[in-house]
Amino acid sequence: ETGVTQTPRHLVMGMTNKKSLKCEQHLGHNAMYWYKQSAKKPLELMFVYNFKEQTENNSVPSRFSPECPNSSHLFLHLHTLQPEDSALYLCASSQDRFSNQPQHFGDGTRLSIL
Amino acid sequence: AQKVTQAQTEISVVEKEDVTLDCVYETRDTTYYLFWYKQPPSGELVFLIRRNSFDEQNEISGRYSWNFQKSTSSFNFTITASQVVDSAVYFCALSEGYGTASKLTFGTGTRLQVTL
Q1: Nearest CA to B26 among B102, B109, B92, B98?
Q2: Residue of A nearest to B96 (CA)
Q3: What is the pLDDT of residues B30-58, one digit of tens each?
Q4: What is the rounded CA–CA span in Å between residue A81 and residue A17?
Q5: Within an 8 Å CB–CB cutoff, is residue A5 touching chain B?
Q6: What distance in Å separates the CA atoms of residue A80 and residue A18, rounded to the nearest whole number?
Q7: Which residues of chain B lie closer than 8 angstroms to A53, CB-CB?
Q8: Cβ within 8 Å, pair A102-B47
Q9: Which of A28, A99, A108, B12 is most deeply buried (CB count within 10 A of its CB)?
Q10: How would you classify residue B70: left for phi > 0, otherwise alpha for psi between -120 and 50, otherwise beta?
Q11: Which of A40, A90, A101 lies closest to B45 in CB terms?
């Protein structure tokens, strides 16, 4: 079983839709992350959760709303998105926020906004 | 502020050639960690190596080797006898500090294309 699983793999939505991205990790980690990867840009950290508590919001617009019900699951709720939000959204997990252990990534959800 | 520069946007080699991917970093911390990740077309970033700032010993893992030089703030990655399966985007990343809320800063990546 893969360490970090993201669903769906692909998502096409209109600007007025509401959808959610899901991430699940089976590694026993306590920190989870959302990143945005756009073409020709470095990966952008969006949110960080450590032991289910949000520890970082990297100035992300409110149309992105994260949720972390437990250390194994992370959601990204989407509503009223803009065309510039089309990107690959990557979830990652690591042992915790402080130990500099490697982050392990999922395959990502490729999001297209019509 | 920390910064990672991967000046090579794209590299093309023929199978069995050796190739080196460059990574230069900037940090004010004396304690930091450097990482390399591989992103194949499937999208997942695969962790390759982590090196801390106090360990300048070069590392070899199969066809992969890493050259860490603090004097030039570089952490270069060499693939020996490249194969088509090595085709991917490779990211270098930096994390500062220890025991603090670390933040991983990525470079823009180098796309490696290995052809037959």
Answers
A1: B92
A2: A100
A3: 889 999 999 998 888 999 999 989 888 88
A4: 8
A5: no
A6: 7
A7: none
A8: yes
A9: A108
A10: alpha
A11: A90
Tens-place pLDDT, residues A23-36: 999 999 999 999 99
What the block records as the tokens of A8 is 């769906």
Backbone angles phi, psi at B84, to 5 degrees: -55, -35
At B76-88, the pLDDT tens digits run 999 999 999 999 9
The total of other beta-carbon atoms located within 10 Å of residue A57's CB is: 13
User: Which chain B residues are Cβ-neighbours of A103 within 8 angstroms?
Assistant: 47, 104
3-state secondary structure A26-68: CCCCCEEEEEEECCCCCCEEEEEEECCEEEEECCCCCCEEEEE
Q: Do B108 and A92 count as a contact with CB atoms less than 8 A apart?
A: no
Nearest CA to A22 among A8, A10, A32? A8
